[in-house]
Design goal:
Elements: E1 4-10, E2 27-28, E3 31-32, H1 33-42, E4 47-54, E5 73-76, H2 83-96, E6 105-108, H3 118-128, E7 134-140, E8 145-148, E9 154-158, E10 164-173, H4 174-184, H5 192-197, E11 204-207, H6 218-232
Parallel strand pairs: 1-4, 1-6, 4-5, 7-11
Antiparallel strand pairs: 2-3, 6-10, 7-10, 8-9
This protein binds cytidine-5'-triphosphate (CTP) and magnesium ion.
Length: about 230
Amino acid sequence: MTRFFTLIPAAGSGSRMDSELPKQYLLLNDNPMIYHSINTLYHNKLITSIFVVLAPDDCNWIKHDWSQFSDKLIVLNCGGTTRAESVLNGLTIAKQRNLVDNNDWILVHDAARPCLTTAQLDGLISELTHDEVGGLLAVPVSDTLKRSNIRNLVMHTEPRENLWQAQTPQMFRYELLFKALQNAGKLHITDDASAIEALGLHPKLILSDAYNFKVTYPKDLALAELIIHQRNNP
Ligand code: CTP
Ligand code: MG
């Protein structure tokens, strides 16, 4: 039987957000940012458990009440110094505790993408369940792309044909993802698909939309808040 798990890396400090509080705990519509991802993943019936990977010294998680999700939530205080390390550490501990098998699907989703929709999640799972490799949500690049030199002078215009922006969830089977992240080691990767690509494989891009953006800078918060508010008050 095919099983689906999700893993949310949430051990970052949010340095670009310019806030004392790590961004995954900043309030968005009265709940911490990470709550919104957990809520969407929790309500998907195919998903067995949600692993949340926190920094070993995280002192913010326990300030909130997560009891409504307790039958699916598994908190692992094993975050690393990079996102890839946090994901790999989470996968390692989940296996050590016999919570996952090699063949299970793992959906890795950033804590900082609170606007993921149920439809996007359903689409990803249904498109990839029978896939050999796995894949990720992504959006085709729509702007014209300029390549600059270090003085911000345009050197040339990059063709945007076949260029996509990677999002999460990114969905791969446990064994492949674990092997890929181990192999990626010191490579400077910022998503899971890059590790799979480094093995010579080709993850599938599943069409998403720009609303599933990553909250990175302070100005992104207001946009995420607006999107969530409009969804909750149609
Ligand atoms: N992440 C993690 N462990 C790290 C770094 C990042 O689990 N050592 C997580 C973040 O918490 C976030 C996701 O990976 O949910 C995407 O990373 P990003 O948006 O870059 O978050 P931060 O690294 O926290 O932010 P910044 O790069 O601005 O410091
Ligand atoms: Mg980061």
